[in-house]
Amino acid sequence: MTVNFGQLLSNMEKINASDLHIKSECKPIYRINGHLVTINHPPITKEEVTAIVNKILPEKLRENLQKEGSCDFAFNIDATTRFRTNAFYQKGMLSIALRRLQYKLLNFENLGLPQVMDTIARYKRGLILCTGPTGTGKSTTMAAIVEHINVNRSEHIITIEDPIEFLFQDKRSLIEQREIGLDAQSFEEGLRHALRQDPDVILIGEMRDKETIQISIRAGMTGHLVISTLHTINAVHTVNRILKYFSTEEQVSLRGEIAACLRSVISQRLVQTSDGKDRVPCVEILIVIDTVKKLIRENRIEDIEQIIRNAQDGMQSFDQSLAQLVKTGKITLETGAEYADDVPAFHRLCKGVYAGTDKSGIIAGF
């Protein structure tokens, strides 16, 4: 193997690359601050890509790759450097996509997350969802919540992941990590078994199907804290996405269950910093207060957006988060406007003024 795969990986930290893409017969490509950058490197042959996969893919998963044409896994090169990886076939040849997992100081302040995260991580039961597109830091935020619990409480934490991303060391808590394909066949199966293993906290890498969602909601209603992700763009979309997994008849009772167990939705985007050298999280926070529960039960999901804008109990909208990033100099006004949901409202937030529609009351029928 003439390609220096180890060097390609070690370069990622030096240049602050989040991802590495290796495609047969092509030059390697890094993702740096959200942008794809092709590097000055000879094309990697299909034989070299196959050799790389054979070196890093766990033996138990090789049959999965051949049968399904794609396989998720993770591997370490040292105690603090781990990569989430997908090997897959395209045009009959192997490709690899690698995400560098950053272990540095998994705490909310270091990650640029709002102070209310400390309150969210103290919940003892219910459902916490981290949402956003791929590559916006959902897994890192969930890992920070788990580490906060690990440091501050004595709990039995079980994670069910595909693959295991962040490796935890027991501190005050007992943490057991199970990987789909190696320790369990599916999220649903892993979750069912976890409920028989005396857990206090369950982390589910992703809620991918109706069955996993159902079990997660019931677990949250029966005294467990469940932390998971959905690929949704905001809190309103998250609640609607959960409901769409179920029939119209089922949704009536399900809205009551969601209202009873959902505690918070944390939605994330990553935004370019002012100096162009990094990205920072822009975060929408929903805290499920009584008014929100009422809106969910009454199927007034869209009205939740207004509750978030009212900024009660640490809630914040994306635009409010962007405005705060502008005020602290972390991003430029132009960048904030590019990502804002409501550009005029965003500009008002940056100036500290409000229109009548920016904040208003919700009549929830109490």
Task: Describe what you observe in this structure.
This protein folds into two domains: 93 residues, Beta-Lactamase; 244 residues, Rossmann fold (3-Layer(aba) Sandwich), CATH 3.40.50. A seven-stranded mixed beta sheet has the order 9-8-10-11-7-12-13, sandwiched between helices. Strands 3-2-1-6-5-4 form a six-stranded antiparallel beta sheet. By secondary structure, the chain is of the alpha/beta class. The longest helix has 15 residues. Helices cover 37% and strands 25% of the residues. The chain is globular, with a radius of gyration of 22 Å. The protein is built from 15 helices and 13 strands.
What's a concise summary of this model?
With 366 residues, this protein is of the alpha/beta class. The chain contains 15 helices and 13 strands.
Secondary structure topology:
Elements: H1 5-15, E1 17-23, E2 29-32, E3 35-38, H2 46-56, H3 62-68, E4 70-78, E5 81-90, E6 93-102, H4 108-111, H5 116-120, E7 126-131, H6 138-152, E8 156-161, E9 174-179, H7 187-194, E10 201-204, H8 210-221, E11 225-230, H9 235-244, H10 248-261, E12 262-272, E13 279-287, H11 290-297, H12 304-309, H13 318-327, H14 333-339, H15 343-351
Parallel strand pairs: 7-11, 7-12, 8-9, 8-10, 10-11
Antiparallel strand pairs: 1-2, 1-6, 2-3, 4-5, 5-6, 12-13
Helix pairs in contact: 7-8, 8-10, 10-11, 13-14, 13-15, 14-15
